[in-house]
Design goal:
189 residues, alpha+beta, 6 helices, 10 strands, binds zinc ion
Length: 189
């Protein structure tokens, strides 16, 4: 996979493709460039996205069309579903826009050696916060136990058993919705 800078694209008329946005994207991972947005997410603790699994999803995953977001690949590994959103698939330089994980089968994920209990709780908590970013969701945070911080916004978040909030390990702020944490600057120390 190559890196594309600032949305710049080199495309000569002779190589321009005749594909439309509705044509299923190609299943060759080497054709896809990485957006800056996606490269940032690759490094994000608690997202569990790697280039290997993204390549596997493009090659073998289930293809879905979403009216607002376009094409996405979905691949389940030991109870966890990886979602990979791609764009510019009608052009000769398609890109990987973003990727994330969600729970496909809670029991399978909990029993898997690939995922720790902390991982499975992190994935479910992150998904719950993203589901409805504006809403405060103490009742959905409370059952989650996450001891190793995951990143969202500027913050590194954990939550203890019975807590209806996530807490940042750096700034010590407490949050109950994704919007709250995305609109609060992290002042470390
Ligand atoms: Zn913080």
């Amino acid at each position: 996979m190559a890196t594309r800078h600032g949305g710049q694209r080199v495309e000569s008329p002779s190589t321009r493709s005749k594909r439309t946005p509705h044509d299923p994207p190609l299943r060759d991972p080497t054709l896809y460039a990485l957006t800056d947005h996606f490269r940032e997410r690759l490094r994000q603790p608690g997202r569990y996205v790697s280039l290997t699994v993204v390549s596997d999803a493009i090659e073998y995953g289930q293809l879905r069309w979403n009216r607002t977001e376009g094409w996405r690949f979905a691949l389940v590994r030991e109870g966890i579903r990886f979602i990979v959103v791609v764009g510019d698939t009608e052009t000769t330089s398609p890109v990987i826009v973003t990727a994330w994980t969600e729970i496909a089968d809670w029991n399978a994920a909990m029993q898997s050696d690939r995922w720790t209990v902390d991982d499975v709780h992190t994935i479910r908590l992150r998904a719950a916060l993203s589901d409805d970013p504006e809403r405060r969701i103490p009742s959905r945070i409370r059952p989650r136990i996450v001891g190793r911080p995951f990143e969202m916004g500027d913050h590194r978040l954990t939550t203890a058993a019975g807590d209806g909030h996530v807490e940042c390990s750096d700034c010590r702020n407490r949050f109950r919705s994704k919007q709250q944490l995305l609109t609060t600057v992290c002042h470390r120390g």
